[in-house]
Amino acid sequence: MKKRSPLIYEFGPYRLDMAECRLSRLGKEVTLRPKLFDLLAVLVEHRGQMLEKDDLIHSVWSETAVEDNNLTVSINALRRALGEDNYIETVSRRGYRFAAEVKVTSGETATDMAVPSAFVDLEPPGGAIPLHSHLYLARDTDKQFYTAMARGDSIVLIKGARQVGKTSLLARGLQKAREEGVAVVLTDFQHLTATAFETVEKFLLTLAELIADQLELPTLPHHTWNDFISPSSNFERYMRREVLTRVPSSLVWGLDEADRLFNFDFASEIFGLFRSWHNLRALDPSGPWHRLTLALAYATEAHLFITDLNQSPFNVGTRLALEDFTPDQVAEMNRRYGGPLRNEVQTRRFYELVGGHPYLTQRGLYEIVTRGIDLAAVEEQADQDEGVFGDHLRRMWVSLERDASLCEGLHLVLRGQPGITLTHFYRLRSAGVLSGVSPQDARPRCELYARFLKRRLT
Fold first, then answer.
1. What gap in Å lies between CA 237 and CA 242, rounded to an integer?
2. What does DSSP assign to residue 297?
3. Quick one: how far is CA 379 from the chain centroid?
4. Tens of pLDDT along 279-298?
């Protein structure tokens, strides 16, 4: 049986005791079916985060085939059990978020391990790390990013595999720019709805409207859009006339999850536009383009999608690569979690298991601390569906199994055989599944992935 966390969560008049599987309101028990309790537990543990529908289904109904409608019915039942307060928010077409403020306390079962004094303040890993969190570990790339932003570089590229920390770094760079009096806008491509990507005109008009909203500009894009010129020309004119002219300072535009754009036919047109603004710094020195910095965070190998290098912003500007944690950085993360790994031998074993993967490092340490388990227990169940990394591994597998050719390439790597194509290698490396500099050097990103994928594919 999966061991319950010893934590107790309190929100509003409610108290959620994880170890006892008990929800109470003002001391009176609220009866929930087991799956409703599990659903509430997942939402509360990831409070403040948007959880995809598929992730919730895999977390709660991992051994059962369940459709979206079952999740919807369960969410509605949970809302009724909690009363009329808006504890659970719906993120349209994507998932749900537990929105209430939550107080965390430790249960009586967590007594036999080194617990940090800030134990009750540990935020669950996943998504961007809060700006002032002591769990954010700065790397050499941070200083390089801040320096490029301070210089006002035209384009700053943050590249790295999935869950390596790109969004957290981007958030800190944008915050430093704000503190320096620079205007900042942020576009997260993952937050855009499918309709925004239907045509290049809809996409650019959406971007312009979002920029206008964040900067509170008086002239809205749809009031100036001209049907006689192209969408790209409309967008560039709006940026020149209404954005850069009206903003008194320099402007940093952060674009997160830029990879999503690669899936659309007009991607080259958009990225070509960004490249042209870089060129305009030299071609139009009296223009406003020297006051604009684009900061793009992405994982995918851009050259797989943009064949004309003269139309690519990914080979100009400042290029930064975020890598996995080093052994010393994993040791530092262990210290920040209160030292649950008790010596250098344990730290090395843990590093070899997760390979310095930033998310896995934090997830593993968080689970050791909050569940009151030791490293041996983590190692024993690490690659199991119900282990401490189970949710993460299942999400990775769901994504991989959709592409049989990708799985075959991965199978070759796991067997130590040559033959994986260059495209499949780059796709798997961008997805954070493989490491290496070439197909000949391809290997699983960490021991945990190797164990899990061998069990799935062989």
1. 8
2. E
3. 25
4. 999 999 999 999 999 999 99
CA distance 26 to 16: 11
Domains of the chain, residue spans:
1-111, 140-321, 392-457
**Predicted local confidence at residue 19, as pLDDT:** 83
What DSSP string describes 153-187? -SEEEEE--TTSSHHHHHHHHHHHHHHTT-EEEEE
Range of 90-94, 125-129, 183-187 with top mean pLDDT:
183-187
The residue written with tokens 């851009």 in the block is 302
Instruction: Pick the closest to residue 249 from 296, 203, 285, 215 (CA basis).
Output: 215
Q: What is the DSSP letter of 337?
A: T
**CA atoms of 129 and 170, how far apart (whole Å):** 11
The token pair that represents 77 in the structure block: 């039942």
Number of other CB atoms surrounding residue 433 within 10 Å: 22
Q: What is the pLDDT of residue 107?
A: 52
pTM score, two decimals?
Answer: 0.72
Contact 433, 410 (CB under 8 A): yes
Kindly indicate whether the domain formed by 140-321 is annotated with CATH number 3.40.50.670. Answer: no
Q: Report how far residue 405's alpha carbon sits from residue 421's, in angstroms, rounded to the nearest whole number.
A: 10
Residue with tokens 């109904």: 61
pLDDT at site 444? 95
Sign of CA dihedral 426, 94, 321, 353: negative
| % of residues, the chain, pLDDT over 90 | 59
Q: Which phi and psi (to 5°) does residue 342 adopt?
A: -85, -15
Q: Which CATH class is domain 1-111?
A: mainly alpha
Burial 289-313 (b: 16+ CB within 10 A, else e): bbbbbbbbbbbbbbeebbeeeeebb
**Type and span of the H or E element at 442:** none
- The 3-state DSSP class for residue 172 equals helix
